[in-house]
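Obj: model holo form, ligand = glycine.
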Amino acid sequence: MNYKDNIYHFRQDSSFLYYSGIDRPNLFLVIDVGANIEILFGNDLTIEETVWTGPQESLTISAEKSGITTVQPSSFAEATIKNALQQKRVIHFLPTYRAVTTKKLSHWLGISPYSLAEKASAILSKAIVAQRSYKTNEELVEIEKAVDITTAMHLKAIQIARPGMAEYEIAGQVEGVAITNGGHLAFPTILTVNGQYLHNHAGSSILQKGQLVLCDSGAETNMHYAGDMTRTFPVSKTFTTQQKEIYNIVLQAEEAAIATLKPGTLFRDSHLVVCKKILMGLKSLGLVKGDLDEATAAGVHTLFFQCGLGHMMGMDLHDMENIGEEYVGYTNTLKKSTEFGLKSLRLGKELEEEFVLTVEPGIYFIPELIDQWQAEKKYSEFINYDKVQTYRNFGGIRIEEDFLITKDAYKLLGKPLAKKAENIESLRNY
Ligand code: GLY
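Output (holo structure tokens):
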């Protein structure tokens, strides 16, 4: 794989794709707002390249299809940028995240690669976020397609997993569903019997009866819109009583979050509703104690729910976060917290009609975190550590679905997939 002619899987930049519709590498697009023209810089394949890859649509045709006025060779890009700089024109560009783009832009603009990110255009970033946040009907069709494939991926995992299988055997078949449906993965598959670690990617652990499998996976369509779901199911045919108790707390927390989804809701409040709901459930099992409003405000729940409730989703799984989480999930007045837990909440701002987002609460018993907090006696007025220690090998449970915010409330995206414990068990009927 580390040989220059074995080309890595190319994934077009989502903003580039959104505005141009052109899904191929080595292109630059200049939108000259003053002159009202667009210039696509790139090269058609040479005959030698065609020998290896086969023919490709000419850039002129691709440009015509997307309404781009002008196509020029790649080598002209530098002069165009330098010319604009000489004329003291303002050049807006997005933050870069690929080394090769950073290197080129840095050279063309005469800005050190180390300060390119801070010089990226806030005006352009905000303008793009303002457009891409509101999903059109055409986009929703694609997103639902992605979520339906994602549902099929999860169904596959729930139906094929058996004691004695390795995690990768299941992950491979789950990923096959995305690929055989003409798309790709929206992100690297998380399929693990160690679901307490939030993003523990598919490994080689062997499934054993009594364990839980957490599968967080998603497809992207060939137009690169994403789906993102999580289900947690028992390796045995049924959940144990203890697993079902925790599962039901997560499910109730998810339902409480869903009930808040509507325009005007501050998603940070939805997150906090879930945090309290999780503490309520854990209090009923004797793991926590005391006043739950105080406990939530203090962040006691972060022993069990260390991440955020959800994120925007679209052409990127974490939609537009490469442009800046501060624009996508927060506002000029609502800033992201730096506290453990809340700092992982990618979306905090008010929900609006046409937003698409995930809701993904979970409970995670991370032995290393439990031990550290207990040693520090952290929040010992709220946490019954002796009881929590009896769950140290429990693992983790997450339930995740994707939603569109509608005029009055929300719409679940994709075909519904079982999520009540009993319904999951019915699917595990081997
Ligand atoms: N579901 C994976 C992620 O949100 O990063």
